[in-house]
Amino acid sequence: MTNKRRKWKSKGNKEMKKQIDSKKMSLYLMAILINALGNSFMIVATVGSAPWTAASEALSEVSPFSVGTSVVVLHTIALLIALSIGSTFRLWTIVESFLLAVVFGLAIDAFMLIHEVFYIPTALIGRVSYFLIGVPLISLGLSLYLQIGYILMPPDYLMKSLIVKFKKTSIGATISLAIPFLLACLLSLFKQEWIGIGVGTLVFLIVNGPLIDWFQRLFPIR
Fold it and tell me: Which of 41, 54, 141, 210 is the most exposed place for a label (fewest CB within 10 A)?
């Protein structure tokens, strides 16, 4: 093969890689938005949200922060906890993960605003319907996000750090979910009403894993 043909082939491979990376990044951002949209449906349903979102809802009730801003605050704390227990990350990884949390939080606030403008269900059947829309949207977003895995959000880094520290997946995963759950409970006690925590939280924890597996089989990313 001549040098000219080698250069042409190398250039073609680079262009193809750029196109693939561009498509993956677009899909990655779409996955984050789908996840945020699903969370907004669960928040509006008020039958219980995912643990980190529930904690964000509770924080927004006792502070001047919006739910989205509370997401950013708690995700930052999650990243700090991961660093405090001995995890090491490149500086750029920390920056990217923080920016991802900001995008996620802003998207939740934007979708919440859209819900408020158009429709927020008050009857139980409407709230349950919103919940049933929100859960699979979150699982779909997570299934795409985890398959691409460019960068993780802070709570996922915290979970990985806890798994490494305790050398057992079940323990690390349980503790990483217990942190926001307990925070939501404490803030709810402070407000003397349950905020973000409900039957929907338990249902989400049970069905989220199987739904992620199903979506990954349905939409595999090669």
Answer: 210
